Amino acid sequence: MRSSAGMHKLSLALLSILPVGVLGGNILSTSGFSSCMNNATVQVQNLDVSYDRTTRILTFNVAGTSDIVQNVTATLLVSAYGKQVYTREFNPCDIGMAEMCPVPASSFSSVGSQTIPEEDAGQIPAIAFSIPDLDGLVKMELKSSNGEDVACVQSTVGNGQTLSIPAISYAALGIAAVALLLSGLAGLAAGGHPGASTPSPTFGEVIGWFQGLAMNGMLSVQYPQVYQSFTSNFAFSTGLVPWGQLQTSIDSFRAKTGGNLTNDSYQYLSNNATLVYTDGTTNTTSRTMRRAIHTALLWGTSVTVNGTSANIGGGSGNASAPSSAHSSRTNHYISGIQAYSEQLTIPQANTFLTVLLVWAILCAAIIIFILLIKVILELWSMFGKIPKSMESWRERYWWRLAKALTNLVLLLYGTWTLYCIYQFTNGDSWAAKVLAGVTLGSFTALLAFFTWRIWIKAHSYTRLDGDAGRLYDDKETWLKYNNFYENYKKGYWWLFVPAIVYMFAKGCVIAGANGHGLVQTASQLIVEALMLGLLLWTRPFQRKSGVWINIFIQVVRVISVVCILTFVEELGINQTTKTVTGLVLVVVQCVLTAVLAVLLAVNALINCIRENPHRRARKAQEKMKLERDLDDLTPLDARNSLLMEPMAQRDRKGRYDAVPPRDQSPAMGSQHSFSLPSRFAREGDGDYLVSSAASMGRRDERSVSRSPDRQPTLPRVGFGSVM
């Protein structure tokens, strides 16, 4: 008992530090309902209950039908975090529900309100009105006079607070936009120099982190409501964008290509469906209003109010007045990828087409942006001189356009694989399946082509130079393929291949094993652990910041999957442990997201100030090459020729001594003098090669040793007398 109480307190403490916890309201209300009994003789059609703490008024609306006239008793069961905390049996006649005394063999309805005594209302903790997405369930069972079960209905209760709020999505989107901007500025600062890496965290790393958070919420396990709400904020990173008009258009396309819209359409989810998760909790307001549950203490004190509070627990609905909308809704049971998409009001059969259209919109935006820059540069060149760096951009705009689209494919490849496989196994439109197959095959072929080209280049450079360093040093190769390996060390350029395989495997595991939570989680744990091992073994990133940021992200991914194992139904872990684990996950992942946001600014500033290591290394290499070339060159004095005496000797420092003028050269007085063989000399020319040749260059008045009659000569080899 102490352990359970401690877990409850820990849950409340963790929830209280979340940002939305300070935005409490004054209303507690139910969120939908679902039947928990088959073949019930009493069918509940509407169940709405709300409590306003400012007025202490409880408002309720209960409606249903019965097959026979019968007297019933109600049993109220209240649970929090999967633990039953309150049980009470009462007679509807005792709390003023005259329409149910007895239950008629027809439709019945009971609407009313009661005021809660102040001493009882004061026992409801204030935090119950602000805690988002708590796990709790209220169940009401109706039994006939002979003890037989005739009805069972359950519902969740919330206060309007949830972690599935637009502010979190906008903040994440802003972080991604800043990462994209800083990555672009880092690329401009590098000036297209080969080997220049992008400072971490890069745009790809940030989007990859957000995609990981979203995919963690797609498994077929029993998530705590707070974590399921939290992961839905990152759906945009996978291409899932809730957009009503877009979904209506997709529904029309599916209807014309073999799709079934009866229970799988935007209209159905919006107006007719009550989403019921595998743990029995419900959600009638996808995305903006999430299920939120008050604590056991709240319900424990509420039910002591004469029977009225019993009606609260037993009723659990979401209105203060009769609602025809609820009475017309049907229970729609969801889990896995379907639950993730349909909580955003995106039908599960629409997921792939939604991502496809969002991808097409992004492609169109990229094309328009690059062509606009091309037009601006062309106009600039007509009326002025554009910088040299931009001239290259202007000439290669087609290649840059293709490279940008390839980057987009590489960025979404993992989630694209997931949605395509899910479309193959759960889609109903033949046209959507064809599009999924064509696009997945095209994207895979595109990445395979670039992988093959880079591999061929690397092997060619290895045969010539002994390593693949020219992938980084050759500017032409760098500009074409650097988006695949720019952040890796030269010795680990190939690591982009395991990264692509990792994304593909992750998508296949989640979509292929959909509906089998244990298989999904165990397989994903293996994939994440293998990737972590590879990073720890190679540490492949050029920058130390990139090494540790990526390793830390991968460690959190592995820990996250280990925590998700506690949500697997087959393992039988109690709900309290699941809720606390979910809260820990939310806090840890929020902290890491905030750290990435800070590092974006800090690392960008540091790397913009500090000189790029590749550029510095290249400068040092060029300097060494220049010095080596100077050592190998023959220093020529302006007064001498290559056809004259032997070269002067180097001193101990590697420098050449100045060559003396001809009349002062020691070689001229040496016994090893050279003379032109007689057969090469023309008569009257003496030792000169050509006596009538023009003067060699302009006369330098500053040289006192130059003779105006100087002629070019050949070396005297000393064997003229022999010939």
Automatic annotation (TrEMBL):
Provenance organism: Friedmanniomyces endolithicus
Record's protein name: ML-like domain-containing protein
Gene Ontology biological process terms in this record: fungal-type cell wall biogenesis; transmembrane transport
Domain ML-like: 26-164
The keyword Transmembrane belongs to this UniProt entry's keyword annotation: yes
InterPro entries assigned to the protein according to its UniProt record, in alphabetical order: TRP_C (IPR010308), TRP_Flc/Pkd2-like (IPR040241), TRP_N (IPR032800)
Keyword Signal annotated: yes
Compartment annotation: Membrane
GO terms for cellular component: membrane
Pfam families assigned: TRP (PF06011), TRP_N (PF14558)
Skewed-composition ranges (Basic and acidic residues): 697-709
Topology with respect to the bilayer: Multi-pass membrane protein
Family, similarity comment: Belongs to the transient receptor potential (TRP) ion channel family.
Record field: transmembrane: 356-383, 404-424, 430-455, 492-512, 518-537, 549-568, 580-606
Keyword set, alphabetical order: Membrane, Signal, Transmembrane, Transmembrane helix
Ranges of Polar residues composition bias in the record: 667-676
Region (Disordered): 647-723
